[in-house]
Structure formats: C-alpha cells, structure tokens
Amino acid sequence: MDRMLYTAMSGAKNSMDQQSVVSNNLSNVTTTGFRAQLQAARSVPVQGEALLATRTSAVTTTPGSDFSQGPVEYTGRTLDVAMQDDAWMAVQADDGTETYTRRGDLQIDSDGVLLNVGRPVMGEGGPIAIPQGAQVSIGADGTISAIPEGVGPEALVEVGRIKLVTPVEGALTRGEDALFRAQPNEEGEPGALPADENAKLVSGALEGSNVSAVDAMVSMIDVARRYDMQMKVLSTADENAQRANGILSIQG
To answer: In this protein, which residues make up the domain named Flagellar basal-body/hook protein C-terminal (predicted)?
Structure first.
C-alpha cells in the first residue's frame, strides 16, 4: 500500500512536469531556430523523515535538448541567416555573458548595433556596429559588408564578422532565457567557445523549429493518459485502505 501511494503520487507529479515541457515545445513549433526540450524521469528512494524502504519516488529530469536541424526556409531578406550543420551564432545575454543560438532573424537598432531578438550579435571584438542607412550583405563565413548610404558599390567595406562556433556534443546547456551556454571554466566563471573559422551560414534564409507538431500532440495525449492512470491508482489505493479498515473493524 505504502509503495503504491508514493509511486502513484510521484508519477502524477512527473506527468504534470512532463506536460509542461511538451506544452512549451508545442508553443514554440513556429519559433525560429528553437530546439525541443527533452524530458525523462528516474526513480529514487525517498529521503528525510519519510524515509522507508518501501517508499520510492519518480523524479523529473531534463537531460538536454534535441539538437537536430530544423527545416530551412529561404526568405530573401538580407538580415536573415541560417546556420549550416552544427554551427551556432554567438550573442550577448542580458547579463553580458556570451551565449549561443540558432535563431537568425537579425535586426539593426537605431544606434546601428546588430541585434538578435534584442540582444547584440557578437563579432571578433564584441558587438557589431553597422553604419546607419548602409546596404548590408552577409557572407557564408559570417563576414558583414556594407555600402554606406549615398555611395556606389565601389565603396563596399567590411564592418565585422559574426562569431560562429561549433560546439562538441554536450558542450551547451539551455538557460531559462532559451539561450545556450558553454560549461563554466575551472574558476566557475561563464565559459566561451572559440570561434570556428570553418563554420558557415546561409544568408537570406531561416531555420525553423525542430519540434514536430504531430509528435508533440501525441506526447501530450500520452502524458495526459498516464496522469489519469496515476490518479486512478491513488483512488484504488484509497478504496483498498477503506476496505481494509472495514475488515479490521469487523474482526475487532
């Protein structure tokens, strides 16, 4: 009885947590460059004052993200870029640290700073600044060229190069802001990956989310059914307890 209650209770909680992950993935099925979250569960003995050999709980874990490539759509927009293969773009987070993303719908703010969803895009020496009113083009290696306003193509100049990195498997972890970060260094400070000179991007295109709407919907239904099953187990345990108490009262 005791084992049944704890297993069903923790299983129901795990189902609710998994439903949150699936819902988040489904809500980002159209988000550019989004990487689906993965979720799993493991069983652990209950600790603390409730410690008993029969009490085991299911604990939710988020082992990582799905790094498979999403569909690439050609837009023709000059500031749209899609990373090729395993390349990632470096951007500056709100706390000033270097983070990484596959999202490539770039903008230029009123100060001429190249932005990725409001965050500065990192170049070789920091955020990239572009002359106001210039015609911009982005090369396959991330090099940004600009033609100042009012002059001809002969005035084409290089204004910066987007920092592209190619992380090894397991090198990136997802943050609460949906940006990915490198593992901290030995001193515990935020890490930064070296630029990859061979990393490439496609200009005039965007990579879509790698979330499958069909798979996410199926997962949502499956999780809901498992939650109902766990609640049924709790109800059955309560009925068994009441019947056991009734038998004991008769015998008494």
So the answer is: 203-246
